[in-house]
Amino acid sequence: MLSKNQIKLISSLQQKKHRFANQLFFAEGVKVIQELVKSNFELEHLYTTKPDFDSISADKKTIISESELNKISALATPNTCLAVFKIPSEKKKVNSGLILALDSVRDPGNLGTILRLCDWFGIKQLLCSKETVDIFNPKVVQATMGSIARVNVNYIDLNAFISETKLPVFGTFMDGTNIYKTDLPQEGIIIMGNEANGISKDLEKLIQKRLTIPRFGDLQETESLNVATATAIILSEFSRRN
Which of 63, 75, 78, 116 has an alpha carbon within 20 to 30 A of 201's alpha carbon? Predict the structure, then answer.
């Protein structure tokens, strides 16, 4: 059975301040948990409604009821398991190759999808401004489907980093150069902006090459693309060229 203190602790991890106070986060679902368990993430404890996960020792695993899982889950329809992990220390930034940077991306689903895209296209380094949603937000973890274990993520002062980098810096804008007609290098930093406001004005001044994804529809009335959708197109085109 779950104790009241366990329920209180796990439920509190839905909030960033409690995640960082306890240095813990949680993940839900068999696939996501399996991906994290086989990675370098350290398991604190697994709570499951089924006698599975044979590789996890008995002292790290508790069988619970569906009603107990409902009390700790962040999902509207809970899965069969929830696992609490320790938040790892940030790894050293990778300063070479193709790097993706996010400027104040706030939607957890977008960040989770972008992490999966980085994993898919082999982007090893994701840089996030400090205003970007927390990577250990349960909705982000869920949306990554395990890719959180394979992409290096750092939260930094993005303006300061871009000011000092020697890599070419690309940004996405409505009035940029057509990405399909632009020479794209193997190394560089691609900046994707906030869902509502795009790239901040201060950061915009530091961008060397403005890119755009052209609209092909006859009416040309769509205002913009979702940031995760735009990221998919941008990474696909950089990968195709290189």
Answer: 116
